[in-house]
Amino acid sequence: MLTKRLTYAVGALAFLAGVWGIYTRLFVGERDVNYGSYVVWGLWVAMYLFFAGAATGSYMFATMEYLFNIKLFKGTGKAALWCALITMPAALATIGMDLGHMERIVKVYLEPNPFSLLAQMVWGYTSFIAVILVTMWLVYKKPETKLTKWALSIGLFVSIFLSGGVGALLGVNASRAYWHVGLLPVQFPIFSMATGFALLMIVLAWFAPKDENRPEQLRVIGMAVVVLLLVKTYFVWSDFSQSMYAGVPQNVEAVKSVLFGPYSWQFWAVQIGLGTLIPILVLTQRKLAGSAAWAGWMGLFVLIGFAIARTNIVFPALVIPELEGLATAFTGPHLSFDYSPSLLELSVVSGVVGGTIIALLLGLDFKRLNIFTSESEVK
Amino acid sequence: MAQEPKDVLVRMHEDLQRALEKAPEDRRWVMVIDLRKCVGCHACTIACVAENKLPPGVVYRPVMEREIGTYPNVTRQFIPRPCMQCDNPPCTPVCPVNATYANAEGVVVVDYEQCIGCRACIVACPYGARTADFGYTYTEELPVLEGAIVGRETADDYERAPNFEYGQEWPRENHRSSPIGNARKCHFCLHRIHEGELPACVTTCIGRATLYGDANDPDSLVTELIKQTNAIRLKEELGTEPKVYYLV
């Protein structure tokens, strides 16, 4: 109970810290951001990737109960669907803030370019929200029917496809050697699954009622997270080692900026240390992995690690000039190849994170949703 | 008696008039930049800023500089970089709302009223040829002086008055007025071309290093130049087929 209250307080504080940023962005404009014409996308795009990953990953988690009928996870599916429903709008809020003309977003529906991956993603996310809502309605009303299984099968496909699609959104840019690798659309579903599982680990460890299955559930989720972290680390290794070996200058510079440059502290200390090594060490200890307190913290560390991992994908590709001499050819606001998020960008993200935390907890507490009540108890 | 050679500006004007008599889809606008003649004066950059009333942070034609060699065997090289107006532009298919496309003449344009400001086109361009308009004015930091003939308010009025890109008026009224919030780029001064004038960067170049014309016209200056063996294009390996050629 104390944990939940503290989390509400953290959410409220984070949201308050975001009010200034959200107001400024909506009513003053984009001038106080640090991204620009050279580092074109920044923290908001990275957080969009993170939240979208959390949403699709949470949906994947829900299929364990409702599609694959894994007994151990009975009673966890609704929480997973609720996480997906809350984190998806968070993704759209952060990417919406990034648009120079957010009031024109309706054009993507009315006058889309169907060959643009970005348009496909907007349509995909809209469909995904609809799929989550339909799935939720079905699991409440007709949990054991074929229709529900069909809905979840479609939802699982959409969540994997959307995760990979976001990777392709970056990967198709031949202009950015760091992104232009076939691995990105393969990596991203793994990233999403790990993010979703880590989020559910927190929810089940800290906010779910006590249950005799809980320690075992946490151990199994912990093991899954460990495997996903190892796979992710293997992807990072294969990506970086090939890039360094091949020696294409634009790619090598980008990788160096992560390993030894301005983003090295967040790569080594947060992504690898806090977000990968510590969770692997803890979650492979059977006793610790089954402890709600430890599992919750490890889930949080993994989430932070993946948020930083997303920034380490977005920023480095853009801080390397496309042409030699471009960086100094003309000066002006937002014409820089150095990037770290501005106060405005951090404030907006804080607001979105705070709002997401509060919405998530309100849903878990909302009795009519019966998120942690099994179907038999409802009847 | 041998005929005196024409100034290239005169010849390009004549080329331009011939091209404008053709249907738009029969023209192939090409820019040729003779790097041997470029002295790095940046007059083209400034002419472009003035012509299109570009605000701070928006640039269509920067001149990149690099130093080659070590002292005393050292030289500086200047490379003006307009939009390459690619035949196979990577910036257009990524646009979610078809706000940027190659027009009938093959010039890549931006529909400011359609653009949602996602900047995907800026990411996709391998030449860094697009910039985003964040809504600045050059005069906003100036003091407001009472009785001054030219203070911030007067200058600000000028900056907020419309420019005429794409033959339309684009006033800068608030942070939602396009092209604020949009991606912007060089459009070969289409508004000038259609009035029979050469692009601002071409007429301003003090070394006659920037040349322009219709490459579908066998008699045009640019057709003559791009056939030369010293004509190169940037990043050809990406398959973008730029319409800007450099003479090296």
Could you characterize what this model shows?
The complex is a heterodimer of chains A (379) and B (248). Chain A is mainly α. Chain A has 15 helices and no strands. Chain A has a single domain (2-374), classed as Formate dehydrogenase/DMSO reductase fold (Up-down Bundle). In chain A, helix 10 (264-283) packs antiparallel against helix 12. The longest helix of chain B has 13 residues, at 8-20. The mean pLDDT of chain B is 93. With 248 residues, chain B is an alpha+beta fold. Chain B starts with 7 loop residues before the first helix and ends with a strand. The chains are: A mainly alpha (379), B alpha+beta (248).
Spell out the blueprint of helices and strands.
The complex is a heterodimer of chains A (379) and B (248).
Chain A: H1 2-27, H2 43-66, H3 77-97, H4 106-110, H5 117-141, H6 146-171, H7 184-207, H8 214-246, H9 249-259, H10 264-283, H11 286-289, H12 292-318, H13 326-329, H14 343-365, H15 375-378
Helix pairs in contact in A: 1-14, 2-3, 2-6, 2-7, 2-12, 3-5, 3-7, 3-14, 5-6, 6-7, 7-8, 7-12, 8-10, 8-12, 9-10, 9-12, 10-12
Chain B: H1 8-20, E1 29-34, H2 43-52, E2 63-70, E3 73-80, E4 100-102, E5 108-110, H3 120-124, E6 130-132, H4 152-160, E7 183-185, H5 190-193, H6 200-204, E8 210-214, H7 221-226, E9 231-232, E10 244-247
Parallel strand pairs in B: 1-10
Antiparallel strand pairs in B: 1-8, 2-3, 4-5, 6-7, 9-10
